[in-house]
Amino acid sequence: MGRIKAIITDFDGTLVNTLMANYFAYREAFESYNYQLTLDEYKQCYGLRFDKFCDKMNIKQDDRKPIKELKKKIYPTYFSHLSLNLNLLNFIKAAHIVYGIKTCIASTATRENLYNVLKYFNIEEYFDIIITGENVSKGKPNPEVYLKAMNLLECEPEEAIVFEDSEVGCEAAENAGLNYIKVKI
Prior knowledge:
Elements: E1 6-9, E2 16-17, H1 19-32, H2 39-45, H3 50-56, H4 61-74, E3 83-84, H5 86-99, E4 102-106, H6 111-121, E5 129-131, H7 144-153, E6 160-164, H8 167-175, E7 179-182
Parallel strand pairs: 1-4, 1-6, 4-5, 6-7
Antiparallel strand pairs: 2-3
């Protein structure tokens, strides 16, 4: 492996443990539309794009948009359940500041949710590029988000390393030809 020029990290579950904050917000939004959501059910869907999540949970098409909008609105009220992966963040900061390595968040999370969390922790300055679900048409395991990241970072697969937490995310990195490190927080 040659010199690493870029670090690409997933967001939810990798850089920030958002599981419980997302779960509580989704559970409240689901209950507002007479659906139930258990933690086990949510864990089985964690990392899926919203439409696939709704498909698995048998959410009627007409209820999807209002549930999504309500979840976005109430999500910040659960930020006390977020936790930052300080080990990964400190590694990224050092690589970025000391060695000039380009940094990127490559996530299919919604832009609003992701930026709200970055602002909550005041860490957006450590990332050169931020890709969200609005920037790609396909979710992981499709490699689109990582191919886009490499293009914007102007690097080849062997010049970048990805940090991921989910199986679908690792598969997406692999499908893009990238080396990855699976993270558990």
